[in-house]
Fold these 4 entries.
Entry 1:
Amino acid sequence: ETKPRVPVIWMHGLECTCCSESFIRSAHPLVKDVVLSMISLDYDDTLMAAAGHQAEEILLETKEKHKGGYILAVEGNPPLAGDGMFCIDGGRPFVEKLKWMAEDAQAVIAWGSCASWGCVQAAKPNPTQATPIDKVIRDKPIIKVPGCPPIAEVMTGVITYMVTFGRLPELDRQGRPKMFYSQRIHDKCYRRPHFDAGQFVEEWDDEAARKGYCLYKMGCRGPTTYNACSTVRWNGGVSFPIQSGHGCIGCSEEGFWDNGPFYER
Ligand code: SF4
Ligand code: SF4
Ligand code: F3S
C-alpha cells in the first residue's frame, strides 16, 4: 500500500481497440483495481480524460520524471510505409512516437497479435507495411501478450505479476509469458476425449456437432495454438470459442491472418 504505483503509458497504433475492450472486462483482478490501485495509468488514448496538448504533455513529463521506471504498453503496431504516414498520432508518425517513448521505458508490453505479430493489418500484401513492435524497438525487454484480443485476465495477470514482483514474468523463446502461453489449447480442451476417441464434427449442424464432438475436421487450430483459452477461458471464465461451437482459429499465433482462418459457405 505504501509502494508508489508504477506509471504506465498505453499507446495505440494500427489496431481495432478490442485489446482495450478485453482489458476493461477483467474480473480477476477487477480492472478498476488495476487502474485505480495497482498502476498509475498516466496516458491512454482510449481511457484518459485529458485531450490534445494537455494529454501529449504527459508523455514528456513521464519521460523526464520516471526515466527508466515506466512501463510502455502498446496496442497495435506502426506502419512503416510512406515514412509512417499511415498512422499519425498527436501530429507525428506513430512509429516516431513509439520509439521516443520506448527510449526511457523500463519494459514494453506488446498487447495482442497486432503489436506482437502484425495481425490483420499486416495481411498480404500489407500495403502500409504494418510491423510488429519488436522490429522497431530493439533495446528494451518486450513482453508479447498475443491474441486477437488477449484474454482480459491474461492482460491484467501480466501487469499484476510485474507490479507485485518488480520484474518481468518468465518468457518463452518468442517472448510470451510462460505462465499463460506454455500450453496448447488442445492440451486442456474439454473436447479432447472426443479427439482421442476419433469422434469428430463433420458438418456444422450434424449430430456430432450437437453432441459436442471434436472440431478438428472443421479446421480447429487448437493443436498448434499456444494460449490459455481452454483453462482461463473468457468472460470471467464462462466460455471460449470452442465451447461456443466453433474451432480455434489460432488468433494468438503469428501469421494466423494469412493462413486461411476464414471460410466461405
Ligand atoms: Fe484488435 Fe486483435 Fe489488434 Fe487487439 S490484436 S487491437 S483485438 S485486431
Ligand atoms: Fe483439440 Fe480443437 Fe478438438 Fe479441442 S476441438 S480437442 S482443441 S482439435
Ligand atoms: Fe483465439 Fe483460439 Fe483462443 S481463436 S481466443 S486462441 S481458442
Entry 2:
Amino acid sequence: PRVVVLISGGGTNLQALIEAQQHDELGGEIVAVVSNVADAYGLKRARDAGIDAVALPHREYDSREAFDSALTKVIERHEPDLVVLAGFMRILTPRFVQRFLGRMINIHPSLLPAYQGLHTHRRALQDGVTEHGCSVHFVTEELDGGPVLVQAAVNVTPDDDEDSLKARVLTREHLIFPIAVRWFLEGRLRLDGNLATIDGYPL
Ligand code: GRF
C-alpha cells in the first residue's frame, strides 16, 4: 500500500513514519512527501530517505481552492491508499476533504475533543489540566473534529512549561502515529459516516 505524507515543518512525525517503514512496521510505503513550505526540514528528511519530496508553496496560488486543486493533482499522481497529515498547517477546503474522506488521517497534539485548534499545550497549561496528550483522527470537514482512532495521554506536572509538555507529547505522537497508519493499511480502520471502526467495532 502507498502513503503520501503532507507536512509544513520539521517533520519529526514524518521521521517516525519513515523509521517505521525502514523497520517494516508501517505496513506500506511512503511514496511522496509534499510540503506547502518550500524549505521545510521535513523535505530534507524525505530526500535523505530516498522519498519523492515535493514543495508546493501555497503563496504561489491565488486562492485556497487553487492550492487545494494543485495539491490534489500532486497527491493523485502518486495513487495513495492513505494521505497522512503530519504537521500540515493548512485549513483544507471541504472539496479536498471530501476527495480523500475515509483515507486521510491527522495527528493533533491534544486529547480530542479537548483543545481543537492551535497552541494546545499553552491552553492546557493555562487551564491547569493534569492530563494532556495527542490524538490520531480521520480528517473530516470539521477542523480537528474527525472521529478519533488512537490517543496517548501524558501527566502534566506543576513544573511543566510549554516546551517540556510539547516535548513529552511529541514522543507519544511518534509512538501512536505509525500504529494508526499500520492499522489503516491493514484495512482495520474504517470511517463510517462520522464514526470510526476498528475490525468493525465502533471506536
Ligand atoms: C506536532 O505537534 C503535531 O501534533 C502538530 O504539529 C506538530 C508537527 O510536528 N500537528 P512535526 O513537524 O511532525 O515535528
Entry 3:
Amino acid sequence: MEKTTTPKTNMVFAREVKEGLSAFPKHLSSKYFYDEIGDKLFQQIMALPEYYLTRAEYTIFEQHKSEITASFSTPNVPFNLYELGAGDGTKTKLLLKELLKQKYQFEYRPIDISANALAQLSTSLTNELPNVSVRPIQGTYFDSLKEMGQTQEKKKVILFLGSNIGNLNHKLAVEFLMNIAHILNKDDLFFMGMDQKKHPRTILNAYSDPSGITAAFNKNVLTRINNELGGNFNLDNFIHWESYNPETGTAKSYLVSKIAQEVTIDILEQSFEFDAWETIHTEISQKYDDAMVYQMAEDAGLRVVNQFKDANSTFKNYLFTI
Ligand code: AVI
C-alpha cells in the first residue's frame, strides 16, 4: 500500500480521518499504517512465522528466477525495470542477480514515496550488486505511472510485488490495473504478486499473530492521529480483529472499541462517539484465484501471459501484457 509520510499530506489525512470517523460504519485507510514506526512493524510482520506471503514469494523467485527473467526479455533487448513500492528490495535482488548473470541490458528504476527508503535501497544495491545500474524515482505510484506513460523510451517491465494490490478494494484495484494497461506499449510487461485463496485458518493466523505485532501495526493509524492531528485515542480501549470470508477471498482488519467512549481530535476541533463494540474498518487484504485474476485483467484491458507459483500455490506471480 502506498505510504503517506510528507507533512503536506496532513491536510488530506485530516480530511480522510474526519470522513472515515463520521461515516457509518466507521473506516480509516490502511495507507495510514505506514510511517517510520509502521514501516518497522511491517518489517517485523514479514519475518513472523504466521505471515507466509513474503517467504512464499521469495521461494517462487528462488525456484523460478531463470524462467521469470527469461520471460521479461532477452539479453539483446534493453529494458527499464520499474518497481512500484520497492521497499528494501530483498526479493527483487534475487531477480537482479539473475538478470546480471544472464547478461541482460537493463536499468533498475525503483519507485517509492519515501526518499529515505530509496536512499537505503540504493546504498545496499551499490554494496551488494555494484554492476546494476540504479536510477530511483521518488514519488507516488500515480505520478510515476504518468511520467512513464509520457516518456517514449525502451521496453518497460513493471514489478508490483507482495500482493500490495490486495490492499485496494475491487473497484480501485481494477482502476489501478487500467492505469497500468494505459501506459504499457505492445512489448511491455507487468509482473504482479497476488496472494491466493487457501485454508481460511492459515489466512486468519497470518493477520492475527499471537505476538501482537499485527495489532500494533493496525493501531498505528490511531497513534498517527494522536501524534499528527492532536487526537486522544487510548489504544488500550481498542482491540485488533481480523475476519476472512472464504466466499469472496476478502480478509478485513478492524479496530473494535471495547467501551463506549468519546475521542477528540484537536486539528478537526471535533469529537467522535464510539458505542461499546463499535468497529473501525481499517484494511482489506484480498486473496485471489485464477478466475478472479483473469477476470480483473480482462476488465482492465490486460492479458495474463504467464504465471509462477510455489509448490502449494500459496502465492502466485502473474505476468501481464496489453
Ligand atoms: C502490504 N500488504 C500487502 C500487507 C497485507 O498482507 O495485506 C499489509 C499487512 N497487513 C497486515 N499484515 C500485513
Entry 4:
Amino acid sequence: YADSAMYQAKTEGRGNFQFYRHDMTRGIEQRLRLGASLRQALDRDEFELYYQPIVTLEAMRPRAAEALLRWHHPQLGLLGPDQFLPLAEEIGLATPLGHWVFGAACRAAAGWRAPDGAPLQLAINISPSQLRERALVDVITQALHAAGLPPQQLCLEITEHLMLDDTARNRDVLAALKGLGVKVSIDDFGTGYSSLSYLGRLRVDEMKIDRSLTEHVCADSEHAAIVRAAVAMAHSLQLGVVSEGVENAQQHALLRAIGCDYAQGYWYLPPSPDAAFQAWLAGVSATPAPAGDNGPAPS
Ligand code: C2E
Ligand code: MG
Ligand code: MG
Ligand code: MG
C-alpha cells in the first residue's frame, strides 16, 4: 500500500511501536483496516464519480464521458480505483459498489446537456465479479429506467483481459447486454498479449487503445505502427476507436492523422467532479467547433 507510512502516522501517531513492526504484518493489518472502512464507505456516502470526456479527434467535440470512481477516505483523503478496487473485489464489495456506480452515473448523465443537442454517451467500467453476476442485466435495466436514460446512450467498458476470458457465460452476458441495446467497448486494448480471435467472436462496438501505447506514439515509430495497425483492424471490423491518455497536442495531432476516431486524456480534461465536467461541457458548447483544431479545449 503506497501511503502505508502516512496511514500509520495519521491513525496511530508516530512513535507508536506498531510503526516499527515487520512490514508484512503491517501490510495485513492495513488491508484489514482498509477493508473494514471500505465496508462502511457506501453507507457513509464516501464514494464519488468523476467524469472525463471522450472527444472526436476530428473536431474535438464531446461525444461521451467515462465515469471514474473515487473514494473520499476519512483519513487518507481522495483515493483512486487502483488503491481500493482490487481489495473491494477480494472482499466481495465490487458488486454492491458496481450497483451504486450504475445508479449514480445514470442519474448524472440524465442531467448533462451536450453541445448541438446531440446525446452524450455514458461509459461505465465493469468489474470481473459484475460480469459473472446473474442480475447484471436487471441492474442495468433498472438504473437506466430510474434515470430515464435510453440504453443506446450507455457504453459498458470491459477490459481486454476480461474479454479473453472467453467462456460461454461471458458470451451469454454480452449477448444479453447487446439485446438490451447498450454498447460494449473493449477497454485497455493492447495489454492482453494474447489472441485477437475474440474480436471476431464477441460482438463489440468500440475499442479503447491503452494509454501505454498512446504514451510513446510520438517518440517511437514502433508504437505508432502498432496504433496504426490497431486502428486499421478496428475499422475493418466496423469498430470505433478511442485512444486513451492523450496528454499533449502532438499526440492529438498524430492520432488524428492516423485516423483514430476519438480520444480521451488530460489534454482535453482530467477526470472531474460532475459540476466541473458540466462547466467544461457548457464551455465547449458555447465555442464553435474549431476549424483548425489546434488548441486544447478550455478546462
Ligand atoms: P480505465 O478504464 O482505463 O480508465 C482510464 C484511466 O486513465 C483513469 O484512471 C483515468 O484517470 C486515467 N487517465 C485518463 N486520461 C489520462 C491521461 O491523459 N494521462 C494519464 N496518465 N492518465 C489518464 P483511474 O480513474 O485511476 O481509473 C483506473 C482504472 O480503474 C480504470 O481504468 C478502470 O479500469 C477502473 N475503474 C475506474 N472506475 C471504475 C468503476 O466505477 N468500476 C470499475 N469496475 N472499474 C473502475
Ligand atoms: Mg475504462
Ligand atoms: Mg481504459
Ligand atoms: Mg487503461
